[in-house]
Amino acid sequence: MNYERPEENSEPGRATVVVDGDAVRDQEARSAPKVSRPADKEKSTRKKVSEVKVKMQARLPALEDDPDVGVQRDQIVIRDGKPDLAFTGTLLASAAPASAPQGTWREYRVYETSGGKHVFSKVTRSVFMDDQDGHEAEIFDPSPSSVPSQVLRSARDLIHTRPLNWKDAAADFFGYDPLAKALYRKLSGQFEEHIS
What we know:
alpha+beta; two-stranded antiparallel ribbon; 6 helices
């Protein structure tokens, strides 16, 4: 440890104390506000990271299930606030960004079930331990059996010139951000708008 002696003072009853390398007289030390050091502030605001998720981030844009693209198998798609989806089907395509410099990223996936339905999945990941991953998913059924979905489908058919297909539903779910466009390129060129 490095000890420093208080400076000798010519005034009786007053002492000088060294605080963070600066000499402070006893009266000033009592009245001065405590200043946090940058190192202390950095330690208190630094979040803990998950080693597993750091490894996931390091291999972006590759995802752990990339080898399963085109392979039919039992799938489970997690959803927040709703039941998870379990089905037999094929992962048609997945997309993730090339990097995640802020420690968060999204993963998009499209599945086709053995029954001809499509499942769209968005996962929002974070390397930080205190941040929970977010999971959203929707199902597109080309021939819905429930009355409300048939009414909605009929209303859409009346408004639009063509019926809703799974690619329209995917565009409604994912939008057209750069990651969604990368996903659409992996699926096919039919997501492009052709003009003449």
